[in-house]
Fold these 3 entries.
Entry 1:
Amino acid sequence: MKGFKIVGGVLPGFGPTLGYTVFYLSLIVLIPLSALVFKTMSLSWHEFQAEVTSSRVLASYRLTFGTAFLAALVNAVFGVLVAWVLVRYRFPGKKIIDALVDLPFALPTAVAGITLATVYSGNGWIGRYLEPLGIKVAYTPLGILVAMTFIGLPFVVRTVQPVLEELEAEVEEAAVCLGANRWQTFRRVLFPTILPALLTGFALAFARAVGEYGSIIFIAGNMPMVSEITPLLIITKLEQYDYAGATAVASVMLGASFILLLTINLLQWWSRRYAER
Amino acid sequence: MEVPIGLKQNKTTTARHKGMSEPLLVRWLLTGIALAFLGLFLFVPLAALFSQAFEKGAGAYFAAIREPDALTAVRLTLVTAAISVPLNLVFGVAAAWAIAKFRFPGKSLLITLIDLPFSVSPVVSGLIYVLLFGLQGWLGPWLDAHDIKIIFAVPGIVLATIFVTFPFIARELIPLMQAQGNDEEEAALVLGANGLQTFFRVTLPNIKWGLIYGVILCNARAMGEFGAVSVVSGHIRGVTNTIPLHVEILYNEYNYAAAFAVASLLACLALVTLVAKSIVEWKLKASG
């Protein structure tokens, strides 16, 4: 931490800027979020339990968290590969491809949703080649996996890439001198080094996929019990004026977000400590 | 939680010996697999988007964009961004100043709380404002009695947008200002500058590029937000539809060409954002 040592040191403006930060944070984030917490607490335990464990809701958790986990796994494998190729190899158009990796951050989710649904539908650019193989992507849970992979794609690449860039050549040279082949060097030397960053990227991609709504609903098919994600279920309940149900399920999602946020903070703390060693 | 949306710091990749790389065939194979993966998820969909947008010709494309409902959506999106981005800019600069330039207890907690909107589902982000200001909500009855509409109206859309774009600028500035330290500001103060002069003449030029990129990123997200805005908007056509919501309506009406035409506007915004990021990274590298 390079910040100033003593509170209110030589630089002015600590009081007003911190005061404004806390005020604005409370107004926009903390008070509205507490509305959800209080509204949930106004439900009786019995009501709450009935809402968050109904079979339709449970099916949506399984689908949302399970598919998000698979999507994060896909991104972990291919994210490391993409980061490796971008850092280590040269090929034409590399700069442009590197920049495009961020596209899922920048492209609005609804736009991604309608595009993926069209491309992966039976007569779409990619779907038409998968359908003869018996693989239906759009309007099935597989479509949800595709959308979740898309929106989580930059996370692993962007967390692993800087670690690979900073890696000292000496470490690998030492492994080679000690007689390791390329695969052994990767497995025993490189992989342990990128592991904390990889897990961080995995957790970020998972967290993003769990909460995602816009890019999924167009491709999912949205059949209750089969392809209905939890965020959509919240909206469905809200549209039926079932405020208690929507609030209860949303509070479960919020709890999951908190746990993921803490996990990611721990992982990032671990990565930093690892990098400083 | 540090979301890797930040600018890359200047780094030079270390040169490697020939014996430390894979055989040519392995390199080609790995590059091929990586590009195939990116192709399936990024390049093909991006190309398909623009192809679909112009499927019925340029005439239909421009007609879809100039249609009155589309224009209202564009106007509402611009208004929303014009309110939410400056508010988050002021917050981002204030938060970055307090967090990067000073040490105080509870700082990590404060950073975690600033990150919260990143980890909350967009649907939940919208819902919390419905619970606060909706008819069933805390302030709903009072607002209704005074004839103030927030939910299913423009103020709700603006609030939800502020929430989801809340951390972007602060998150871009904090690491940048921490890396720069306090030396230059302290020198300016010793030379007799006051606080504001120090900020505008010393700090601001130093963080200029990070600030510009933060604003661009925040703006892209503000114009493109769908989930949170969808919950609070009420989908009143030509009144409370932003561009992404208008795209949804067109798509659900099977008016695909028009949906993709309007969506291509947002895709262009995303591409401009990526180009801006590359330019800013290049500028940082040149100046660093």
Entry 2:
Amino acid sequence: MLTLMCLAIPARVISVVGDKAQVDFGEKVLREVNVTLVDAKVGEYVLVHAGYAIQAISQKEAQETLSLWNEVLDAGKE
Amino acid sequence: MADSQIYRDPEMARRVSDKIKALTPKTGIVKICHVCGTHEWTISHFGIRSLLPKNIEVIAGPGCPVCILPASEVDAAMQMAKKGLVITCFGDVLRVPGSHGSLLDAKAGGADVRVVYSTSDAVTMAQVEPQKEFVFFAVGFETTAPSTAIEVQRKAAENLSFLISHRIVPPAMELLAKMDDLELNGFIAPGHVSTIIGLAPYSVFPEKYHLPTVVAGFEPLDLLFAVYMILKQISEGKPKLENEYSRGVQWEGNVKAQRLISETFDVVDGKWRGLGVIPKSTLALKQPYAGYDAIRKHNIQIQDGIDSQPGCRCHLVVVGKIKPDACPLFLRKCTPQNPVGACMVSMEGTCRVWAKTANVPNTK
Ligand code: SF4
């Protein structure tokens, strides 16, 4: 896997042991990543950059993007 | 996880484009600068520029850590390789031109240079071969610096030291904000750098330079929304800081990562390829970790390097003053296979992105 230096990729946390977690990038790409920087919870998503999770992301926040976008569009209506 | 298609919904894209059109001033140019190689990739790959009105220009700033890596630091890594140390680095770093050749050339000449996916891979390699001395070439912005900090603090392997080349983004943005001839009207701030640093470090841009600043994600719609949010701020005459990418960035950033960075590094003046020395823009290991500084440990002299090969226009590309196709070497002497300038090396480098995508400009 090539490291893109600006990009972090979401992956689902499968298991956590100490500061390491097994994560799933989708399509059965499993990897061990370091989770020192985040509170990794099994079943939730983390943003992974070059083998280190840099942020925990929840389904809720993904949904919020859509409502933010709709709000932004509606706010311009008047 | 929500399906990524929702971030590419054509109907939503059309609605935002309409809004953008409605807010675009009839005269004059609105110049918006992003500072992230992955933003350039999304913009080029999805033809975002072709969806914008003619007088909205989105330019690429110094957002690719490989492009701004000074030759002097590549030269230092090559000196270390020559001394017989094992150099570990990310794939892109391998091909960045130093003053005379790249680490790839050193490798071809027999040096032990190894590509890793992650800093922790370098640690593992050093642990497996304790009889050898390893160096990790730590390149990257704030997104990458925390991983170096973790491993330095762990003191994971005595035979591993770090060539620290981390740079921080806001001081480079400030350099651009101050350039009179660039005449910027707004910033799209980098998403994953912001995941770490949060929004506060950008407050200077709306407050001091009156530049609308929006942190954005990496999907096509994220970038269209960022453009729209900037135009809206301009039309209201109220520059401010906004977060379009709330699913990846919290306002305060990743506090733990910030703490690790400030415990591990001092912020010092540093050279950026193509930009010169930028005050307080570069990380250096703090005194307690000096033993892990590869330059000190292996007694390397950093010399002024040759950042620009003859004819190369990277120094203009990297601040968005010219587009890659205005460089006389673009796709002639300088290609993704044989890069002459650093902007052609990484998949996030502006020239490399333009070489790989049919960038449809909106201004012609
Ligand atoms: S085409 Fe090559 S030489 Fe020209 S500016 Fe881009 S990277 Fe530099």
Entry 3:
Amino acid sequence: MLKLKNVEECFYPETLEEAIAILREKGDKAKVVGGGLHLTVFPNPQVQYFIFLDNLGLNYVREENGTVSIGATVTINNAAKSDLIKGFFNGNLSSALSLIASELLRNQITFGGSVAQREPYSDITTILLALDTEVVYFDGSEHTEKIDEFFETDFRAKLKEAIIKEVRFKKFDSSYKFGMERHVRNATDIALLNMAMLAQIEENKIKDIIVSYGSRPMPAIRFKALEDFLKGKDLNEAVKEVYSFAKENADVKGDIRRDEQYRRELTGVFAKRLLESFGR
Amino acid sequence: MKVHYKINGKDYEFDIHPGKVLLDILRENGFTEVKGNCYMGTCGACTVLINGTPKTSCTVLAAQVNGAEITTVKGLGDILNPHPLQKAFVEKGAVQCGYCTPGTILAAYALLKENSNPTDEDIKKAIDGNLCRCTGYVQQVEAIKYAITLLKEGK
């Protein structure tokens, strides 16, 4: 089944500079390929050139000076099974990653591809938003932006002449808790709502918190109203109050899969469950 | 364009359209044990090992894996010398129509290479991308556990 029938040539650059030069030369007819899943499942017959990222050395998960960096071509399973990621949040981050899609697709979906596509149902972008991640991209020189700010720009236009190099986040200490909830119809399906939470809890008070939710059905964003509501609260009080606030203030819509009320209810339930898990 | 793969231990060169997925290249060149079905990465029937990692060959661009080592189910064993997984799947009734079997066996093989003592949950997670309409998965999990026993006994 030949879906990409107009492809003429493939490139395997060995440096980011080389990759950018090819991307600039070929323009809209070129497609940067990380895992390649999006390209093969949603093929664009206009594509004439592939720029494969496999030889750029972006397949690393490492920690340096208190910052964790995940290269753009790292797959979900590469990250989930790495000792570094398994060591965070009592394994909760690794567990959250391990529930996304199926084992076979977790071997193909990349962090760079997930950020670049920003699919509405993406669990990766919800997780990265909660981790206050930075996106590092290269267009001849290196740029670093907070992921939520990156998504507020015309990032797709930026990526016409740039390549995502890595994502990075702080190495959080044990005062931070992380959790994720997903509503799915079966184990390997896309989420119909997802939520991730990162909270710094000290003496049972929420010192700092980031909440992100996606597949609303719109793409993932931070739930800043909920963050402001919860910051500084006693955790037990917050657990009592969060369901109503989250449900009433959720920015969600209905679609053919789930109506707005269902997603609104889920938002409240997920927020409560996640806070409850932080108290255990 | 020309691509080179090592498939089941042997070197091959194919002249391909660069827009094709690996599944089509394999089947067009006689590796029909790799089954085509959904072409979306959702059913797992087309699973192969690419440099030891199980992936759905219907979503992998053939040009992207130029130079890779590819293993199909025939690379594990044959009818005269079956791999313990192949033996176990037959003996435990985990093969009914057989269409999902090559992919599921390869996913299980990859699991056992990484973890020789998986729990039931590890097994289910490893084959969660290989859909089966026939067995209900119970026999498949039993077969994989039986294969572990056979492997430990050196059979």
